[in-house]
Amino acid sequence: MLCPEVWKFSPSANNFKFKSGRFDEGKIQCSNLMDFHYYNHLVQVVLPDALSVPETIKNLLIEDCDYYVIEDVVINELINKEFIEAFVKKGQLTALSDGMKIDADDCVALTPSGELVLSLNKQTYQELGLEGRASIFSRVKQDRYVVILDLKKQHFTPGKKNYDRVCECLTNNARLNMNLLVTWKPPEERICPSSVAAYFSSRGYRVRQCEPKFVKQIAYNVRVPVYNDSNNDEDALELMEWLGAFSIGADLKEGDTGDFLNSYQYPLENVDVGAVVQMQWRGYFTASQIHALFDELRRYVSQRSSIPWVSLYVQGFADSPINWGLKEHQFYTNGDNSYVIFLKPNNRYLTCSYISPSKRPKSKINK
User: Could you tell me where the beta strands, DSSP code E, fall in the chain?
Assistant: First the structure.
């Protein structure tokens, strides 16, 4: 007996955005996609028709990509004048609360451009006493608020009313302490990136050094879809579907339409390749590190005229307060915020960005 239908919800809208064209004309599009996506957790590169991969590609997100977990940080540490002058105003500092849930807990993010973003529940916000705004996802209930502080502003300094007010509010709020993921790119090569870890350690905090995790896999005798300039957004979505299925090791051999186990049918033109290399890094990656990998992939694909494409997939943290730039993160369904860039040897590109839908799930059963 089949279970009776008790939930009947319409599927959430897919917020996919596709862009394609010549790279020399769309360079800014690709750059903005990478440079304003500050908090990156997973990176995957797929190289069709490849067996050996240059070590420079593999090592770009391994060497000198350590990051730090600072435990139980009191958030007013981030507005300390010494800290701002040494790390926020010099180089690129990126920090994100670790282990906090964006839909239930207080979360914090510090961007490379110097904005401190506080995503707070109602009680914390009211106790804090700083001016903010209701989250765009809680305009009706107003149970979540966002406060943004520009730490690089000239007037944000001790002795000024604004700074002193913020310092007083953060100091008097015992709720705002949490673990932070921190990475810092120094303004000069002679300065060690671990200086930020040494700073927090000198302030009495426990600091853990973390390294990215790397996995490489090779699949043999694979049929790879080909995306041409004449293809449309639906074809691009099909290419994304293939990439996702391949990434999780799904069976991509075409089955009969009546085959219950596998009914996959290739939607696009495809080619057979001897091997496909898949590389995956997990950790805490900055936008500048992703951009360096992208530049290396461009050099690689320019030397491999026979391959159909290479792909760069980047996935953000599900619980970051913001995703692109200062755009508030959408989290009511799955918290996804990711993008893919396909590069072709003929100087063409295809980008696809995905942001999870912002609508609240329905809570009533349709009768």
Answer: 16-22, 40-48, 67-74, 92-98, 107-110, 115-121, 133-134, 144-150, 177-185, 207-210, 213-225, 270-285, 310-316, 337-343, 348-355
Given a cut of 60, is residue 18 above it in pLDDT?
A: yes
Dihedral sign of CA atoms 245, 335, 70, 105 in order: negative
What is the rounded CA–CA span in Å between residue 24 and residue 258?
Answer: 46
Instruction: Mark out the alpha helices in 223-268 (DSSP H runs).
Output: 233-247
pLDDT band at 1 (very low <50, low <70, confident <90, very high): very low
Residues 331, 356: contact at Cβ < 8 Å? Answer: yes
> pLDDT tens, 138-181?
767 788 899 999 999 988 999 999 999 999 999 887 778 999 99
Nearest to 75 by CA among 8, 174, 165: 174
* Structure token pair of residue 80: 């300390």
CA 350/CA 342 separation, integer angstroms: 5
Rounded to a whole number of angstroms, the distance between the first and last alpha carbons of the chain is 21
Structure token pair of residue 101? 């849930």
Tokens of 311: 């792909």
Which residues have C-beta within 8 Å of that of residue 191, sequence separation ≥ 6? 91
**Is the Cβ–Cβ distance between 103 and 333 less than 8 Å?**
no
Mean per-residue pLDDT over the chain, rounded: 87
Rounded Cα distance, 118 and 321, in Å: 8
